[in-house]
Amino acid sequence: MAAKIKKGDTVIVIAGRDKGTKGEVLKVLVDENRVVVRGVNVVKRHQKPTQMDPGGIKNFEAPIQVSNVAHVDPRDGNAVRVGFKTDEHGRKTRFAKRSGESIDV
Q1: How far apart are the C-alpha atoms of 10 and 103, rounded to whole Å?
Q2: Calpha distance 77→30 (Å, rounded)
Q3: pLDDT for res 2
Q4: Is 11:5 a contact under the CB 8 Å cutoff?
Q5: Does residue 41 come out as left (phi exceeding 0), alpha (psi in the -120 to 50 range) or beta?
Q6: Predicted local distance difference test score (pLDDT) of residue 104
Q7: In sequence order, what are the beta bridge partners of 59?
Q8: Residue 26 burial (10 A CB sphere; 0-12, 13-18, 19+)
């Protein structure tokens, strides 16, 4: 199955506590159907001190369900569905269904 959301994509949260927040995908957890987005679902964790890190209470981005995020349309910045088509070189590329703009650069 082709991946509609990849690392580095700009997405918008469409459901949950951080609804409406835009951010960059930092990590995709394919087996769990989850993504980690910068600035979204930030949680506090107590970290033990190590030789390199003093420890304390740290902020981390926790994974969220991939169904709760959508691509940002390159043209107007709203949530958009993603489709696939082949370009003139025969490569499979992603595009925004509403505007027709290419997502892969």
Answers
A1: 10
A2: 25
A3: 61
A4: yes
A5: left
A6: 83
A7: 44
A8: middle
Instruction: Please report the pLDDT score of residue 1 as a whole number.
Output: 45
63's tokens: 């994974």
Compute the distance between CA of residue 72 and CA of residue 98 in angstroms, rounded to an integer: 11
State yes or no: pLDDT of 102 exceeds 50: yes
- Of 90, 81, 88, 89, which is closest to residue 101 (Cα–Cα)? 81
Instruction: Find out whether 90 and 34 touch, Cβ atoms under 8 Å.
Output: no
**Distance (Å, rounded) from C-alpha 85 to C-alpha 69?**
22
pLDDT digits (tens, 9 = 90+) for 3-57: 899 999 999 999 999 999 999 999 999 999 999 999 999 999 999 999 999 999 9
Residue with tokens 């709760």: 68
3-state secondary structure of 90: coil
Measure the CA–CA gap between 102 and 92, rounded to whole angstroms.
11
Cβ–Cβ contacts within 10 Å for residue 93, how many? 14
- Region 76-96 average pLDDT: 94
